[in-house]
Amino acid sequence: MIIVLVALFPLTGYGQLGGNIKYLNGQSDILEQVNISQDGLQLSVEYGFRLKQKRLEFHPGIGYRFAFKGAGDEGSISAFDMDLNTAIYPFDFGGDCDCPTFSKEGNLIKKGLFVEVSPGMSFQTLNRDEVPLQNPDEPTSYSVSNSIFKYTFAMGLDIGISESFTLTPMVSYSGFSSVEWLGLNPDGSEGILDDQSFLGLGFRMVYKPNPKRLRRR
User: What is the pTM of this model?
Assistant: First the structure.
């Protein structure tokens, strides 16, 4: 689906380049019970574009996600994510905002507030510490990987810094499809992870090239 949207870039006007950093607070009881760290960061690069006549924007992105591993943790999850971020501006859906810029007169909330839905795919790797019972002083580790579906709901507010740059604070909730993990349990046995989710808090920085400069080239 992301490839199809990339093919539609020329039909939507000039694009935007963006970066997204998000702190994630894990909400999984299962991961907590088996001592897998959850809290971490997600770093993404995005290409944004919008419909010409409506305030519907797309920010497909590719990101890397990792968890901070604490002293009591016995494993962690890292991942490469592909997200199709789709934002709608409900208070200005039919507006003519040439975002990202707020040089025109207008209410910041009306022009900048949006809700975002992001279906996606995640290639996750579980990195597990294993302590053999016969020799607990020499732990070994192993990794297993799975591809799973993910979804994110978010809300954000575009704050124009200049004619070309927009800073967007965002809050989000992400969930994942149920998956059977080999090695999820501390003894290396299989387990089902069906409650993985995150609360996110972060920022998106978007750069939009000046169309007049592009036409001069």
Answer: 0.81
